[in-house]
Design a protein that fits this description.
alpha+beta, seven-stranded antiparallel beta sheet, 8 helices, 15 strands
Length: 329
């Protein structure tokens, strides 16, 4: 079993050999780096840090697959648009936001393997946190996520996190961001600032900027500070999930998700981290996919507010999912 890999990235063929052996394994590449280090940790949607999973803790023990929600009989696009319409009504009633997601499923194409998908995705998104892990019974998870949830220097106590929300296609001559996206980002930024203040840690905020991700871009604000005596695990639990993965108010957003999303998020919306003696780096698990046998699931979500348009939200998820779908079909 492999819970930690360092020194060099496994080749696509080596990854596929581990998959064929039903071996639990996992590793991640930090942004801009080509060699993995540290122990990979994964947190499920809404699970606290104490319930994190590492491949080394699973070994060859097959886990019981989580029971999926029963899908609606109508086609996935129509179901998504209808459900987003209901979520918009819920958000308008409370002047809030819900991050609503899709699970796009299908059969992997001829010659498509987990090892090849990981290497191709990693090559396309070098400035993101890229990972792959296999848990027997729960599938192979692969992702390239840009969103820092909590990055901590364990020797100095310094940390960083980010508010990443608001999405549009990248343009050569972009217009100013619209009110819908600005408001969506503000929800996340205010939540993080309020959470850090209540936790009693010192921090500073950057100006809002645009962060590119392939053919799309997001609004982004960085937060940097020092934890002092506050454990990083408690800050992680306070931040996870941010309104960028859940919504606000949190309880109402979770209720929307549980009522209207027809799938179990599993690890989507949770966190993926690597830990070394000197560093803990956790990223929000978005821009991810799962492969189980010859089937895939690609996850993509968007922030729904009272200003959202259902069809525009559908197109946003299509744009977010496109790079991964192209590697799978």
């Amino acid at each position: 079993m492999i819970g930690q890999i360092s020194g060099s990235t496994l080749s696509a063929e080596e990854i596929d050999a581990l998959v064929a052996s039903d071996e639990a394994f996992g590793f991640a590449l930090l942004p801009g780096e080509s060699e993995p280090s540290g122990v990979l940790e994964a947190g499920r949607w809404l699970a606290p840090y104490a319930e994190r999973v590492t491949p080394s803790s699973v070994g060859r023990r097959s886990l019981v697959p989580r029971s999926p929600k029963t899908p609606n009989s109508v086609d996935e696009k129509s179901r998504y648009i209808a459900n987003v319409t209901r979520v918009i009504e819920s958000c308008a009633a409370r002047s809030g936001k819900t991050v609503f997601s899709r699970e796009i499923t299908g059969s992997v194409g001829d010659g498509v393997t987990a090892g090849r998908v990981f290497h191709q995705l990693s090559g396309q998104f070098l400035d993101t946190f890229r990972y792959i892990f296999n848990l027997p019974g729960e599938g192979i998870w692969i992702g390239a996520t840009p969103e820092i949830l909590l990055d901590v220097d364990l020797t100095a106590g310094s940390f960083s996190t980010m508010a990443l929300a608001g999405t549009r296609r990248t343009a050569d001559n972009p217009m100013p961001w619209d009110e819908k996206n600005i408001r969506e980002h503000r929800y996340v930024s205010d939540f993080i600032a309020d959470t850090l203040r209540r936790a009693g840690v010192s921090f500073s905020e950057s100006e809002v900027q645009s962060l590119p991700y392939g053919d799309i871009e997001h609004l982004c604000r960085y937060f940097r500070g020092n934890l002092g005596d506050v454990p990083y695990s408690s800050i992680l639990d306070l931040l996870n999930p941010t309104p960028a993965l859940c919504g606000t108010p949190k309880e109402a957003a979770i209720a929307d998700i549980e009522r209207f999303e027809p799938h179990d998020r599993e690890f989507y919306g949770g966190f993926i981290a690597v830990k070394t003696p000197k560093r803990f780096a956790a990223y929000a698990n978005l821009r991810c996919l799962k492969i189980s046998g010859n089937r895939y699931s690609v996850y993509a979500g968007g922030g729904i507010t009272p200003l959202s348009d259902p069809y525009a939200e559908y197109l946003e998820t299509e744009a977010k999912a496109a790079p991964r779908l192209a590697l799978l079909r």
